[in-house]
Amino acid sequence: MSANKVNELLVKSNLTAQDFITVWNNYDKEGNGFIKDEQLDAFLQDFLKKSSTPTSDQQFQQIKASFVNSADENKDGKLDINEVAKLLPLEESFLMLFRRNAPLNSSVQFMKKYDKNGDGSLDTKEVKEFLRDYHKQAAKEPLQEAKLNEYSAAVVQLFDSNKDGKLQIHEMAKLLPVENNFLGKVSFGSTDINKKDIEKLFKFYDK
């Protein structure tokens, strides 16, 4: 993606889901779900180009420190995808996905509801059903089918770190904070969870 194209997107007043994917992928070169160091500097420099006021290196470092202090909600010294999303003028219905203040009570219950085939992951159709329910609850009105298709495809594209076309629990957790996340309590020796693992989890928690 050319620098000019990214700069054009950063000054748009209303970014679509696909626009956000383009911007995010331009900076998250390693695909690890956050930007820091040189990636963060590049993002901030491009972000500041919306202002016509030139900045010196010293001013940039001061702005960066203030910017990160404000935007870095979990204070880990880097900006994750949720934190960057809140900085950009995304479509309101898409931005809602990154504004989850209350964590899920249980990732087990979440997967029971949306993982229809019990394979331990969510494909695009299953993500779509989650988005349908979430938007209905958050916005008190249904989202158009075309937007549901667009957003579910975007979510899978953004969070599918191993590029298998679906979201494992650990990938979904980057979008949805969970109070009772079983990944921290039950070890499988792998981040890819199969149906047998899911049954093991349900047995562990449904006592």
TrEMBL record:
SMART domains: EFh
Protein name per Swiss-Prot or TrEMBL: Calbindin-32-like isoform X1
Record carries keyword tRNA processing: no
Biological source species: Leptotrombidium deliense
GO CC aspect terms: cytosol; dendrite; nucleus; terminal bouton
One record GO biological process: regulation of long-term synaptic potentiation
UniProt keyword annotations, A-Z: Calcium
Domain EF-hand: from-to ranges: 15-50, 102-137
GO-annotated molecular function: calcium ion binding
UniProt key word Calcium: yes
Pfam family, one: EF-hand_7
